[in-house]
């Protein structure tokens, strides 16, 4: 039997001034795009705490799209540069978790760039569709944490010389 | 205590209901979402009936929170907040979710659209339960205003505010107000003499009781927030006592040191070491330029001091620092001309008879260096042919991509002046002709009738290397005439370059001082390019004139007046309400690490040394939330965008995975590769 096409669930963190308005603009211009991005409205992309991203992924999102104003055009002058810094560090963390950085994307969209934002949404949706569901709970959460620790200790006993 | 949440789903006629099953969403919300006391759908929630329905429900069902699923909050958040207020519910206990622009208008299928609306509503309901009531802070508005820049735009703003009865400080860097307009001979399309229309306004400014004119002054520092700014101004030493000086000009006459005036005369003429920029200067008090004055150079002369009939010269004068308090600031700092040496193929700076537009203006001006005669650099010979080159540094990927907006009209004006003053043939090499305002097209027609010759082509090169005998000793304009489809070499005596209008070289620096950012091109960023071109993202700071973008005099005047009107409105109300969406630091949790201090672009976070904690100035905070996200101790709470609110929203948005009470829905089978590192 044909398996139903996987529909990624993506949480979007959009800044109130540029990217949210760009999304509004896509609506006004009736630019059809994938419905998979569920938008959280924040005042600035600088408000995006990396723990929000991890929370979204751990609760079942397959991807996260952070959208802000272009560098130099932030409503709060320069806060989107802080977003970039955090995003770079977040990518490191994701890498250590074994999560593809293609799942968490940072894009810039000015209020006039409705078409570009719609295209970016379609792009991340298709990309995450190719990657498949993240399944944080099954893949990353350990139900019996101590068993796993025991197993690692066994496997690496010589290297670690851990007292049991 | 459980919240009592009212959920309202709008049909918006068929805009939403045509694609989304709004009845299904409403039924589903009532049945599945925690805390939902009442759920309704309605054709047009924003209508007065719709709002009244919400208000009545709040009273009847004792609702403590409201969710509206409709159009963009940018349109109607205020409307629904007001509806809540009408019913006695704090307006911040409302959450709107966008199911029109973000869903119904962009969805391809009804079922996916409806499912999406369900999770969006779930997110809003989960979030709104964590909302707190908030109150805006009223702040008194100081009726004084600072206008930075004494060009035509700043002059207009200052006069309007002063005429309305409010005190104005007009700050100008040069020794006189007037700006670039004072340099021009005539203005298009009326060919009014620029000085004749400008100087009455300048006089008004100089004599107005409500205007404090601070010329030869710089803005050093600005602090505070709307209604209450503190400004530090450096009034540079003129070395002339302003009270004693009568403006007789004897000192200027007798000064033995002459230098090239690179500012007002655009390098075309001379001034003395003690000078006023032009005869109609306001104020008429001269300034000693310490870089060219013989006394400052080698302690000789002081002729001006000896000859001044009122003993107004004071070589011991110092810069004066003034601290002023104002309620609002208007930036009207104007523009700088593109440096045409950046286009070497046009030969400016190398070939003598290539002029910039400003140089040419000064030449045409009757009180300019040539007394209004159009002559070559030798100061004597009248040109027999002139070529005006459009778009030098504008509309050009190498320099500035934008169009400077005024050069086509400027070219027509200068062409007209050449035709009026000489018998020369006038060519203009253009890409497009852009006379796009009132009477501009008619002016273009006039020049066509006057015999100005227009060549459609961007000039490739201006050279003095002759190929044929008739090019000897001439400047040759090499251009492709795209209407003829031929390369042309046009020999002329004189070339005038329409250089681009550029932002001031230090615009970014000034912007940083007042909290206004610049776009990539360097113009100040307005609050909204279509609907609010004079306000900025910093409350209480406005922009007017060319510093916002290239524009002509009528537009600069209009913007100056608009900025003044906005400020007048605030002053007459007396108070402004500061948005309560701000951050606050829990000082018990603050560890004093100061990571937040440097993150704030509005300098709203101070570190209190005695207590070793950071504190946010509520009036300065704009609520961006960057510090909230950065705090390692989670000591900073962001009102209305708090961590618990956002996290609840995320959880709600994943309702189809997590379920309403945290149970995990069935997950799809994992793919063979468990992780995708």
Explain this structure to me?
- The complex is a heterodimer of chains A (about 160) and B (about 675).
- Chain A has helices at about 20-30, 50-60, 80-95, 115-130, 135-140, 145-155, 155-160; strands at about 10-15, 35-40, 65-70, 105-110.
- Chain A is of the alpha/beta class.
- Chain A has one domain: Lumazine/riboflavin synthase (Rossmann fold, 3-Layer(aba) Sandwich), CATH 3.40.50.960.
- In chain A, strands 2-1-3-4 form a 4-stranded parallel beta sheet, with helices on both faces.
- In chain A, helix 1 packs across helix 4.
- The radius of gyration of chain A is 19 Å and the shape is elongated.
- The mean pLDDT of chain A is about 90.
- Chain B folds into 5 domains: about 5-135, Lumazine/riboflavin synthase (Rossmann fold), CATH 3.40.50.960; about 135-230 and about 320-335 and about 505-575, 3-Layer(bba) Sandwich (FAD/NAD(P)-binding domain), CATH 3.50.50; about 235-320, no CATH class; about 335-500, 3-Layer(bba) Sandwich (FAD/NAD(P)-binding domain); about 585-640, Alpha-Beta Plaits.
- In chain B, strands 10-7-6-18-29 form a 5-stranded parallel beta sheet, with helices on one face.
- In chain B, helix 5 packs antiparallel against helix 17 (about 645-655) and helix 12 (about 405-420) packs parallel to helix 13.
- Chain B has 18 helices and 34 strands.
- In chain B, helix 1 (about 20-30) links the parallel strand 1 and strand 2.
- With about 675 residues, chain B is an alpha/beta fold.
- At the A-B interface, helix 1, strand 2, helix 2, helix 3 and helix 5 of A face helix 4, helix 5, helix 16, helix 17 and helix 18 of B.
List the helices and strands and how they pair.
The complex is a heterodimer of chains A (164) and B (677).
Chain A: E1 10-15, H1 19-28, E2 37-42, H2 50-59, E3 63-68, H3 79-97, E4 104-108, H4 114-131, H5 136-139, H6 145-155, H7 157-160
Parallel strand pairs in A: 1-2, 1-3, 3-4
Helix pairs in contact in A: 1-4
Chain B: E1 5-10, H1 22-32, E2 36-42, H2 48-61, E3 65-70, H3 73-86, E4 94-98, H4 100-104, H5 110-128, E5 137-140, E6 145-148, H6 152-163, E7 168-171, E8 186-187, E9 192-193, H7 194-207, E10 211-214, E11 217-225, E12 228-235, H8 250-254, E13 258-261, E14 269-272, E15 274-275, E16 287-288, H9 294-298, H10 303-307, E17 320-326, E18 328-331, E19 335-337, E20 354-356, H11 357-364, E21 385-392, H12 407-421, E22 425-430, H13 440-450, E23 453-456, E24 459-463, E25 475-481, E26 486-492, E27 494-499, E28 501-503, H14 507-514, E29 541-543, H15 553-573, E30 575-578, E31 583-585, E32 605-608, E33 613-616, H16 626-630, E34 636-638, H17 643-653, H18 655-658
Parallel strand pairs in B: 1-2, 1-3, 3-4, 6-7, 6-18, 7-10, 18-29, 20-27, 21-22, 21-27, 22-23
Antiparallel strand pairs in B: 5-30, 8-9, 11-12, 12-17, 13-14, 15-16, 19-28, 24-25, 25-26, 31-34, 32-33
């Amino acid at each position: 039997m044909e398996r139903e096409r996987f529909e990624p669930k993506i949480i979007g963190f959009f800044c109130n001034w540029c990217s949210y308005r760009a999304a509004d603009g896509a609506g006004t211009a009736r630019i059809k795009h994938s419905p998979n991005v569920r938008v959280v409205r924040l005042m600035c992309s600088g408000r995006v705490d990396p723990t929000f991203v991890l929370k979204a992924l751990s609760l079942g999102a397959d991807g996260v799209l952070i959208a802000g104003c272009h560098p130099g055009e932030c409503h709060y002058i320069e806060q989107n540069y802080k977003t970039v810094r955090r995003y770079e560090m977040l990518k490191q963390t994701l890498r250590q978790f074994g999560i593809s950085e293609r799942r968490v994307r940072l894009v810039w969209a000015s209020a006039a760039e409705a078409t570009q934002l719609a295209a970016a949404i379609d792009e991340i949706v298709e990309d995450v569709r190719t990657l498949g569901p993240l399944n944080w709970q099954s893949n990353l959460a350990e139900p019996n944490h101590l068993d796993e620790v025991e197993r690692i200790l066994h496997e690496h006993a010589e290297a670690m010389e851990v007292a049991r | 205590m459980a919240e009592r949440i009212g959920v309202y789903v709008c049909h918006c006629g068929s805009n939403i209901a045509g694609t989304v099953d709004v009845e299904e969403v409403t039924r589903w919300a009532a049945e599945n979402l925690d805390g939902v006391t009442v759920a309704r759908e309605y054709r047009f929630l924003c209508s007065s009936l719709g709002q009244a329905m919400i208000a009545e429900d709040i009273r009847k069902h004792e609702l403590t929170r409201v969710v509206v699923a409709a159009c963009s909050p940018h349109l109607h958040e205020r409307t629904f907040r007001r509806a809540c207020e009408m019913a006695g519910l704090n307006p911040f206990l409302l959450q709107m979710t966008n199911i029109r622009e973000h869903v119904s208008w962009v969805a391809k299928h009804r079922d996916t659209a409806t499912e999406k609306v369900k999770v969006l509503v779930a997110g809003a309901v989960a979030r709104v339960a964590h909302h707190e009531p908030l109150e805006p802070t009223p702040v008194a508005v100081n009726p004084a205003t600072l206008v930075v820049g004494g060009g035509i735009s700043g002059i207009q703003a200052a006069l309007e505010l002063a005429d309305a009865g409010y005190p104005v400080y007009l700050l100008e860097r040069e020794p006189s107000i007037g700006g670039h307009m004072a340099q021009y001979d005539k203005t298009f399309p009326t060919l009014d003499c620029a000085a004749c229309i400008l100087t009455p306004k300048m006089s008004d400014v100089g004599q107005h009781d409500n205007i404090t004119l601070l010329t030869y002054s710089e803005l050093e520092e600005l602090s505070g927030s709307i209604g209450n700014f503190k400004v530090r101004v450096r009034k540079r030493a003129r070395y002339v006592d302003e009270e004693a000086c009568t403006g007789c000009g004897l000192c200027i006459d007798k000064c033995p040191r002459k230098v090239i005036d690179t500012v007002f005369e655009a390098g075309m003429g001379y001034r003395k070491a003690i000078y006023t920029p032009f005869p109609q200067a306001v104020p008429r008090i001269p300034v000693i330029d310490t870089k060219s004055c013989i006394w400052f150079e080698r302690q000789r002369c002081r002729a001006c001091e000896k000859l001044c009939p009122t003993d107004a010269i004071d070589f011991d004068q110092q810069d004066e620092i003034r601290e002023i308090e104002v309620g609002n600031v208007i930036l009207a700092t104007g523009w700088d001309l593109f440096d045409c040496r950046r286009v070497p193929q046009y030969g400016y700076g190398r070939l003598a008879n290539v002029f910039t537009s400003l140089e040419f203006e000064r030449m045409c001006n009757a009180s300019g260096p040539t007394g209004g005669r159009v002559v070559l650099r030798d100061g004597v010979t009248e040109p027999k042919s002139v070529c005006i080159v459009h778009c030098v540094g504008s509309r050009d990927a190498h320099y500035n991509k934008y169009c400077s907006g005024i050069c086509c009209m400027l070219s027509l004006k200068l062409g007209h002046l050449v035709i009026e003053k000489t018998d020369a043939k006038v060519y203009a090499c253009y890409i497009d002709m852009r006379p796009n305002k009132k009477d501009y097209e008619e002016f273009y027609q006039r020049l066509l009738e006057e015999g100005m010759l227009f060549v459609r082509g961007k000039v490739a090169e201006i050279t003095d290397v002759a190929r044929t005998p008739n090019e000897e000793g001439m400047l040759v304009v090499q251009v492709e005439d795209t209407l003829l489809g031929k390369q042309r070499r046009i020999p002329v005596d004189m070339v005038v370059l329409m250089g681009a209008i550029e932002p001031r070289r230090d615009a970014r620096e000034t912007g940083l001082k007042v909290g206004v950012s610049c776009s990539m091109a360097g113009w100040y960023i307005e609050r909204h390019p279509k609907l609010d071109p004079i306000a900025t993202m910093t409350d209480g700071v406005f922009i007017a004139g060319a510093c916002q973008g290239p524009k002509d005099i009528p537009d600069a005047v209009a913007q100056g007046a608009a900025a003044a009107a906005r400020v007048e409105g605030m002053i007459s109300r007396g108070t402004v309400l500061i948005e309560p969406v701000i951050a606050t630091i829990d000082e018990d949790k603050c560890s004093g690490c100061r990571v937040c201090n440097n993150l704030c672009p509005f300098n709203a976070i101070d570190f209190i040394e005695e207590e070793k904690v950071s504190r946010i100035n509520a009036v300065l905070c704009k609520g961006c939330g960057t510090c909230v996200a950065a705090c390692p101790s989670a000591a900073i709470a962001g009102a209305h965008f708090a961590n618990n609110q956002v996290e609840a929203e995320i959880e709600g948005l994943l309702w189809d995975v997590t379920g309403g009470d945290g149970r995990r829905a069935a997950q799809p089978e994992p793919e063979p590769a468990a992780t995708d590192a």
